[in-house]
Amino acid sequence: MQAEPVLVLGLIEACRAVITANTDHLCALDCAIGDGDHGSNMQRGCEAVSAQGTALSNLPLPDAVEKIGMTLVMNIGGAAGPLYGTLLMEIGRELRARDRTDDFAIVLKKAIDAVARRGRSHQGDKTLLDVLYPVQDALARSSTLIDVARHAERSASLTAAMRARRGRASYLGDRSIGHVDPGASSCALLTTAICHYFGENHRA
Amino acid sequence: MTTGNTANVGIVIVSHSPLVARGIADMVRQMVGDCVPLAWSGGNVRGELGTDAGGILQAIETAWSDAGVAVFVDLGGAETNSEMAIEMLGAPRSALVAICNAPLVEGAVIAAAEASGGASLSKVVATAEELSP
C-alpha cells in the first residue's frame, strides 16, 4: 500500500496549520483545567512531523502513519504524546495487517481501543476519547465528511459538561465541569482539518 | 556514572520536574551509594515541566540491570510515558521493568535500600508498594 506522497504531505501540513492557528486557544483551555501546555506540546509534535514530511511521504502508508505516531510520542511530551502516538502507531499496524483501506472505520476502532487501554480511560471521562469514539461511529455509518467534522466539533463541546476522571483535570473534581477538554478540542480540530483536506482534494 | 553492581535491581526516577527527579536521584545515591544502578528523567524534551518517553527510555537503559529495573513516577503523564518507554524497550527486556505504585520519594529510597541488598525485582517492588495504602 503506497501512499500518495502529495496526500501525506498535504495532511501533515493541514494538521500543522490548524494546531499552529489554535496553539494559544489550546493552551488557554489547558490553563483552565490542566497545566497550560497542551497547545505548545501539540505544536512541537506537529513541527517535528512536518520536518520529516518528505521522508514520511516516500514511505508505504502504514509505515508513514506508524512513524508519525512515534515522532509524536518522542516530541509532544506530556500525556498527549503517548495517546496520540498510540492512536497513529496502531492505525499504522492495523493498516499493515490488511491490504485494503476501505474498512478504515474498523482500523480506527481498534486504534481508539488501544488509546483507551493506554490511558485506562473510557468514553465520558472528559478526554480525547469523547471525540474519537463519536468520530469513529460517524465513519462507521458512512456519514459525509462534513457530518464527521460537525460531529467532532459537537462532541468536543459536549465535554464541557463532563467531570474529568483522568489526567490532571481529575484533581479538580467538580471544578473541571464547565470547561471544554483540551485534548478533545485538539482532536476535534485535527479531525475537522483532515475532513476538510479530503473534502477539498479527494472525492469522499 | 558507572554502576557498581549490575546484579542489583536498577532504579529510575521519573518526574514532571527535572529538579524533582534529579533531587530524588541525588537523595537515593547519598543513602545507598553506588551499588544500585540509578537514573532519572524529568521534564519534556525541552526541559520544561512534563515527561518524555524518549528520555525515560534512555534512563531505563542507563539504569539497566539484568535483575530488572523499578520505575517511580509522580503524576499521570509520567506513568503513561513510562509505559510507552517500556514498550519501546522491547521484549524480552520490557518484562523486567516494573512501574511501582508508591510515593516517589519514600518509594525510591526504600526500593533502593532493598535493591542494594540484592533483593529480586518483585521483592523490591513489593517493599515499595507497601507504602501505598
From TrEMBL, chain A:
GO biological process: glycerol catabolic process
Domain annotation DhaL: ranges: 6-196
Keyword Kinase on entry: yes
GO terms for MF: glycerone kinase activity
UniProt entry tagged with the keyword Transit peptide: no
UniProt-listed PROSITE patterns: DHAL
GO CC list: cytosol
Name listed for the protein in its UniProt record: Dihydroxyacetone kinase DhaL subunit
Organism this protein belongs to: Rhizobium azibense
UniProtKB/TrEMBL annotation, chain B:
GO molecular function: phosphoenolpyruvate-glycerone phosphotransferase activity
Source domain of life: Bacteria
Domain PTS EIIA type-4: 8-133
Pfam families: EIIA-man
Gene Ontology biological process terms in this record: glycerol catabolic process; phosphoenolpyruvate-dependent sugar phosphotransferase system
InterPro entries, sorted: DhaM, DhaM_N, PTS_EIIA_man-typ, PTS_EIIA_man-typ_sf
Oligomeric and partner information: Homodimer. The dihydroxyacetone kinase complex is composed of a homodimer of DhaM, a homodimer of DhaK and the subunit DhaL.
Functional summary from the UniProt entry: Component of the dihydroxyacetone kinase complex, which is responsible for the phosphoenolpyruvate (PEP)-dependent phosphorylation of dihydroxyacetone. DhaM serves as the phosphoryl donor. Is phosphorylated by phosphoenolpyruvate in an EI- and HPr-dependent reaction, and a phosphorelay system on histidine residues finally leads to phosphoryl transfer to DhaL and dihydroxyacetone.
The protein's name in its UniProt record: phosphoenolpyruvate--glycerone phosphotransferase
Species: Rhizobium azibense
